[in-house]
């Protein structure tokens, strides 16, 4: 006669619950995935702190009651036109006006000032610092404007940006 196969005794309910809990825990872990710490590879011996977000200031009110006035405006840039013989020659030959300008003014500012004050188009501006420390500007007008006409208009209407002093000759006097 064949030996009888013994049936295993059913597991007690406590053990069954334990294994079920273990299985659920394993399932959760598998679903969640592994979160491991990756080591950052440092390639430099010096530590550079990260560039964090730095927001601009948003003031509730202005700290200045009135914005500062621009001291180098069009009238301050051009002091007076030069009326020397060489300046007159430049006007006639090269269609160029010669001005004494503020030392702090750059070529772009001089160009804009001449455009605004004398209603002419400027081709280019050359500057030269004189031995007395003043800056001389050679302002070449565009071909459709005549420097001689601009100079006579300047002299006749006495359009002086900084207020002509009587010691300066006007263009109209020196041209005639």
TrEMBL record:
GO-annotated cellular components? cytosolic large ribosomal subunit; nucleus
Identify the keywords attached in UniProt to this record, alphabetized: Acetylation, Citrullination, Cytoplasm, Isopeptide bond, Methylation, Nucleus, Phosphoprotein, Ribonucleoprotein, Ribosomal protein, RNA-binding, rRNA-binding, Ubl conjugation
The ranges of region (Disordered) come to: 1-67
UniProt cross-references to Gene3D superfamilies, sorted A to Z: 3.30.70.330
Q: One GO biological process from the UniProt record? A: translation
UniProt key word Zinc: no
Extract the HAMAP family matched here.
Ribosomal_uL23_A
Instruction: Report the function annotation for this chain.
Output: Component of the large ribosomal subunit. The ribosome is a large ribonucleoprotein complex responsible for the synthesis of proteins in the cell. Binds a specific region on the 26S rRNA. May promote p53/TP53 degradation possibly through the stimulation of MDM2-mediated TP53 polyubiquitination.
Q: What is this protein called?
A: Large ribosomal subunit protein uL23
């Amino acid at each position: 006669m064949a030996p009888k196969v013994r049936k295993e005794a059913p597991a007690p309910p406590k053990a069954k619950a334990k294994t079920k809990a273990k299985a659920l825990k394993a399932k959760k872990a598998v679903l969640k995935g592994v979160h491991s710490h990756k080591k950052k590879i440092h390639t430099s011996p010096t530590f550079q702190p990260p560039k964090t977000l730095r927001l601009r200031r948003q003031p509730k009110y202005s700290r200045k009651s009135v914005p500062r006035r621009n001291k180098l405006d069009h009238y301050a840039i051009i002091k007076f036109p030069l009326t020397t013989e060489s300046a007159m020659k430049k006007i006639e030959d090269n269609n160029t006006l010669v001005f004494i300008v503020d030392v702090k003014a750059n070529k772009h500012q001089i160009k804009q000032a001449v455009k605004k004050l004398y209603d002419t188009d400027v081709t280019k501006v050359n500057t030269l610092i004189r031995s007395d420390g003043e800056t001389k500007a050679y302002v070449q007008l565009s071909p459709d404007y005549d420097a001689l006409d601009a100079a006579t208009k300047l002299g006749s209407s006495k359009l002086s940006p900084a207020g002509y002093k009587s010691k300066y000759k006007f263009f109209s006097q020196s041209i005639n």
